[in-house]
UniProtKB/TrEMBL annotation:
Name this polypeptide is given: Sn-glycerol-3-phosphate ABC transporter ATP-binding protein UgpC
A GO term for molecular function: ATP hydrolysis activity
Recorded family membership: Belongs to the ABC transporter superfamily.
Domain annotation ABC transporter: ranges: 4-234
UniProt xrefs under SUPFAM superfamilies: MOP-like, P-loop containing nucleoside triphosphate hydrolases
Primary location group: membrane
Keywords: ATP-binding, Cell inner membrane, Cell membrane, Membrane, Nucleotide-binding, Sugar transport, Translocase, Transport
Gene encoding the protein: ugpC
Length: 378
């Protein structure tokens, strides 16, 4: 088994703590993407799992064994770096087979395994070339081949696609996913690119400033962001966020200029009267008289639709609009959003309020209802 467990893992450089106590359980065969902006500590976390960076406090287990004190080569992980780290003077075949040579595997066996890996990655025709004679995507595949050949328990990828152009990135994404489907090797993949994270991950770990903000499937982090940070970071574009005052008695959210948006107060039982942050996706906005009026600023053409940017009560908001309608700067604009598409977050902590799931039985009620159906014996 190759499950990975992180318990209260922290990392400090001198007095500066950059990873603030991360807990994570990764199942055997899972594809986990650690997603966050530059400097949030994601590479440091990956390097601690690999053993390339010492842990300041906490515990890391791989396959049920605490690896804190193990050398990188004793951990059963294979790492693929952004800059590929290939040996420039060696051919592709030698680069891929190098770790087997070091391990003393006989030549015939080595050649056989290199051939197998090269076939799996479509590198057979490049085996005698040197890295300088390859494209970026081909070099990346060699780096993956070098990691694969050791049949590691765990694959660790550190922004492996960042140096590739956009088309190649998409192609390599598909290859990495296919490879994972075939091998089912437990994988930790670090990226700052949320599209990469959404398309590759079984689960995403969203990091911000050394803290894990949310762990969830791509659908969970998109549909139920647990913090305003996740709401703003995930999605293209990120969720619209606006400061409002909740009035649960009237079932409205009041904007700073007095305009009101209706919300479902039964869905948000913990929201009291006072300041909250309201969020809604650009895709949930309709341009029709409804919730709020403001003015058009500019639009971004997406081909099949536009991202329409406007200002409402002093806040910049975005609508995803299909169709060919054109706009002029400054023209009045109305945004309508259904109450069920509104997400509410605590104004101070940025945490999502508890939500009552629609149509779910309220605890106790179902038992009462069933009770009522049973004829009473006199
Ligand atoms: N050797 C080091 N000494 C001191 N500080 C470091 C060292 N390595 C990293 N840091 C700091 O730790 C923090 C986290 O760095 P890390 O490389 O993990 O971020 P990241 O999320 O991977 O960012 P990027 O995407 O830019 O690589 C940063 O503030 C960085 O400056």
């Amino acid at each position: 088994m190759s499950e990975i467990t992180l318990r209260n893992v922290r990392k400090s450089y001198g007095k500066n703590e950059v990873v603030h106590g991360v807990d994570l359980d990764i199942a055997t065969g899972e594809f986990i993407v650690i997603l966050g902006p530059s400097g949030c500590g994601k590479s440091t976390l990956l390097r601690m799992v690999a053993g390339l960076e010492a842990i300041t406090t906490g515990e890391i287990e791989i396959g049920g064994r605490v690896v804190n004190r193990l050398e990188p080569r004793e951990r059963g992980c294979a790492m693929v770096f952004q800059n590929y780290a290939l040996y420039p003077h060696m051919t592709v075949a030698k680069n891929i087979g190098y770790s087997l040579k070091i391990a003393g595997i006989p030549r015939a066996e080595r050649d056989k395994r290199v051939q197998e890996v090269a076939k799996a990655l479509g590198l057979e025709e490049f085996l005698e070339r040197r890295p300088a004679q390859l494209s970026g995507g081909q070099r990346q595949r060699v780096a993956m081949g070098r990691a694969m050949i050791r049949a590691p328990k765990v694959f660790l990828y550190d922004e492996p696609l960042s140096n590739l152009d956009a088309r190649l990135r998409v192609a390599m994404r598909v290859e990495i996913r296919k490879l994972h489907q075939r091998l089912s090797t437990t994988t930790l993949f670090v990226t700052h690119d949320q599209v990469e994270a959404m398309t590759l991950a079984d689960r995403i770990v969203v990091m911000n400033k050394g803290v894990v903000e949310q762990v969830g499937t791509p659908a969970e982090v998109y549909q139920k962001p647990q913090t305003t940070y996740v709401a703003g970071f995930i999605g293209t574009p990120g969720m619209n966020l606006i400061d409002v005052t909740a009035d649960p008695d009237k079932g409205v959210l009041v904007l700073s200029d007095g305009q009101q948006i209706a919300y479902d107060c039964a869905q948000w039982p913990d929201v009291g009267y006072g300041p909250v942050t309201a969020g809604f996706r650009a895709q949930a906005v309709r341009l029709e008289p409804g919730c709020i009026s403001g003015k058009f600023d500019f639009s971004e053409e997406l081909g099949s639709a536009k991202l329409v940017h406007g200002t409402f009560a002093g806040t910049a908001l975005i609508a995803h609009v299909a169709g060919a309608r054109t706009f002029t700067p400054g023209e009045p604009l109305c945004f309508a959003v259904d109450a069920t598409d509104i997400h509410l977050f605590d104004a101070d902590s940025g945490r999502r309020f508890n939500e009552r799931v629609r149509d779910a039985p309220i605890p106790g009620r179902k038992a009462e209802a069933i009770d009522a159906l049973i004829p009473k014996v006199a």
